[in-house]
Fold each of these.
Amino acid sequence: MTRLTHVFYEEAYFTKDKVCELENELEKRKIKLYPATKYADVKPENMLLMTGTQNMVDFAYDNKIAVLGLEKESAQTKLSKVRYVYMDAQMITADDILLVYNRFHGYPMTIGYTMRTKIRELALEDLDDLFRLYAKKGICDYIEPLYEREEEEQYQKAYIQNMYGLYGYGMWLVFDKTKNQLIGRAGIEQRTVQGRQVIEFGYVMDVSYQRQGYATEVCEFLLSYAKEELGENLISAFVHPENEPSIRLLDKIGFVQKKELLLDGKKMLWFEREMGL
């Protein structure tokens, strides 16, 4: 995976104070910030351009350079070929820049770290490990199995682009931080249940990592992330009545059982947690 090293910006959109702020933020990540007029000979894969000029967008597009689009509310025309456009350049952060860069190149975003794990988005390069995880005994007792390899690859490719790319969340991968080994999945997704739009919380953990507090550690982190970073205040979870370990876990981390229901033809228990509590 290549790394972002240089960011070039169109000066007309930024105040001097904002430039200083971004310089400081990016410097902590060892990324240089320069005006677009001082364009340097940097490899396209190591740079990002922030611009509101279509000609510059076209240049970046032709040279496979990541672009963060800039527009003013008074703009008569809209930028084309740009997936991410910001209407107020003064609100852009270093995290926004890294997000646009990673999305452009298809690199998975790291969601965060717990004491023993790393949580990040899935990349297509993870599919072999994902299939190995799902092939283990007990993993698919209460969750759907993966598709056949080719169909799963197409599904995950669309998922990365649409779920991660548009919503910024989804089902993520959980790694043992010391071994850099895939040990589970966890995350949140939107779902319509009984005519109601809910945020569903889900998780699965490698059998060899169960009963050691890993699931609790990861789930507590992600619930905090859902509230603090995504602004979600009510989280739902749906569990098979015979899945006693998951029921105990949900009870431990503050979920309350609301009702029984049929979900996709299966009897399930509906749990909720109000994040203000």
Note: The chain has a mean pLDDT of 94.
Amino acid sequence: MSAYQTVQEIKGIDVNIAAPFRCILILRRKTSKTAKNGNPFLSIELGDSGGSFNANCFGDSDVFKALNPVAEGSIIRLSGKTEYYQERFSPRLQAAEVIDAAEAEAEGMMSHLIEIPPESEDELWAHIVEGVDAIQHPQLKETVQRVLSELGDRFRKCPAAVSMHHAYYNGLLEHTTHMLRACRALLPLYPEVDADLSIAGIILHDMGKLEEYEGEFAAKVSRIGTLQGHVVIGFRIARKAALQSKLNADLTERLEHIILSHQGEKEWGAAAMAATPEAVFVSMIDNLDAKMGMVQRALRNTPQGDEFSDRLMGLQTRVLVTPPDKS
């Protein structure tokens, strides 16, 4: 038996017991804050392949001193006691230290740290290849092929978000594949929507995230991600490939519009509101899979026996994870 526990194992401990635990986790988020009394503290998120939790580290604690200089994405060995506050897991951390990947591997915990989708990378990628093959317009197909030829390896590994949905290794590949499946299932219901543009737009819609995010074990927003954002970066990637492929002006503009509008609302980061059949279609599928991705992750990661997940920021609620009673 391992000397360390996973997030699911820790959360599975009886809520009425203040139980000690030891674990090796990724420091996913760290925010420096100031309490009402003027004292500094850290608000952190720690996680592994099966979930995460948030905790506060106050300025007079050893954990604060240990983690204050540490970068997000670092591997942390820590110990503490389980506690709950207002029915929310809120552990008391007692000790923490940074370790490297080699030590995590030697402790037998490295394989537990990296969250990946249920389907393998190769299975997901096969659906992308199938989607490209389904594009009939030669220059539109070439445009997508050019992008994947240049960026495909990074696309296969990248997370789809920092924290909201599909925020893990291969997450962007999974999100795009799920969108592509939904697209091809729904296209027969909407003959007004052009299939080629929709498929191309879905495959390319989030390519800007390859530049927007950085980090090996925990994604964070890069310099260019902060200054431009993935919508603008993705627009430039698509335009370059379209010009190289000699895609006509109308299709280029429509493809760019899908990328510029796919976030759905300007306050969510869209550069324009969806104004073509294909842009509306892609935007709605993107929103659907983003939210269902949150649900699927909650169903996977909520400890067995719990009725509800933790509160999901993207859904602004907890999710009921018990299956329907169909007796």
Note: The two ends are 39 Å apart (CA to CA).
Amino acid sequence: SLARAWRLVLLIGTTLATFSIGFNVLTVHAGDRVFARLPDALPIVGGPLTWNALVYGVSSALAIATLLVAAATLSAAVRQADLIRLLPSRVATLGVAGAVALTLVPQTIAAARDIYDAQRARGHRFRSPRDAISLLAPLLGAGLERALVLAEALETRGFGSSARQVARPRRWPALAGAAGVTIAAVALIGFGRVLPGVALLIAAMALAAASAPARSQRTRFRPLVWDIPSVVLALVAGLAIVLLGLALIDGMLTYNPFPRLTAPPFDPLIGGAILLLLTPTIWSGQ
């Protein structure tokens, strides 16, 4: 199932994040708090081992683990079909593509586990890398079959079609511009220019929306019901996003243990915004 697949993704992600801590300690020889020293004759790892590098590795690992937990929680708690139905008609196709991409990895992992169990039930044992062919070949076939079934289902439901036959404008210039602006935005955010990077990301989303096909008629078999918990959770999540966005613009979410190791500052506003994300636990029993 997808739940088991996401558990495996979390396990792999946390393992790699933990490995990155040791890699960071052994390769980054900077900082003012030295706790050990390896011989300088050793390549790459030789030199001082600092608490600064350890703290930086732990913070990076926690960031990776947080992203994985957030993605797994979103995938397990929210129906992707409901998210797509909330999108405007003009960008609904982009939402479907994003939903398909989001479920690609967990579905592939779930299929791999099923094939692995089936092969072991048949008496196959994986003793060397050559034995992986019996796993990879069925996995590739299952992936292609799943892609064909998904394509036929989308084609049957008229995905991307329009009720009226109109002349299609050339959309590739806007898409190319959106891709270039996105790359520039990521580069700016990577170099610490958060506010210009966020502005460019908004511009890239506007270009991508402008390049989307014209809106088409959408039918709904069952309307979405917004009850009191849904409205409260949406408002609280929006408030938390706004508060964290303001903190990110002001640089309050950045922490660098180099060159001097100091305690990270704590802002009650940021702590309150994070606690707002625990609101779903109030209605967890419903």
Note: The beta strands are 34-38, 47-50.
Amino acid sequence: MLDFAGKRWWYLGVSLILFLVAAVILAIPPRLEGGIEFTSGSSVTLVFEQQVEQEDLRSALADLGHGEARIQGAGANEFLIRTRVLEGAPSLGSAEGPVQSGEIDQIQAALAEKFGPVTRKDFSTVSSTVSTEIARNATFAVIAASLAILVYISLAFRHLHKPWLFGTAAVIALVHDAVMILGLFSLLGKWFGTQVDTGFITALLTVIGFSVHDTIVVFDRIREKVTHDPFIPFTEAVNASLTETLARSINTSFVVVLTVVAMLLIGGVTIRNFLLVLLVGIVSGTYSSIGIASQFVVAWENDDVGKFFRRLTGRKEEPEAELGPAA
């Protein structure tokens, strides 16, 4: 049996350092590069028949009055272009589609004249009002998911002493995973202009579900141990549970990671950010279920922080209580 709990402060210490680094990166402006869904603007994918360099395309758009345009390669002579809101553009989800005449048609005609035939694959526009609503709803979705998880796990483990502790530990673990992802995308946004969109939020919620699922598997095994043997030391119950579920957690995550990596290699640019969030989140979620959630419960149960401060102040140790079944 591996002694995970005995090394809990190594796991928690590393997690805390990574968390603080990600938080500092996230705090440095610009925090995140928002896509048009969050900042308003227009997005279009253009495919050229002839060879076109990204810098030449950027220069041509600047000449057309769109020096703010962000250009991202999406394949051979294919570019994803984001600009300010274009006049006469259909809104996101408009039934009229990209055939509506407007400023985008003028841009496309000018680019075709300079670079040769060009095909418009997709086009969408989001107003500032819609982008604000999307950002607000996305925030509410993440908060609501976290609160629901806290309540559900607390109810599921209500027959144990301090059931709220398990729910709190699960939420702390998923907050860690979320901040890791946000910190990474903040860094990518600063270096490479990587933007977050609604697909990012979808992937983030998926990661939250995956992380909590892995954590619940471990917690459920802990519950079985302490229910079957109420006198087993809680640290021993955690070590046994983690040892028994370790192979399952790693194997499951490894298979998912292989699938995500394969999709990253062969998938298009439109789902790249979604897959990157999944990749980072799955790895972080697997670690947090082992090195954060369970270790936090053990640290709280053993009153590690309280013991540390009592040693500093010279106070006597208090007797420990075990997290057995509730009376």
Note: The chain has two domains: 5-33+130-313, 41-126.
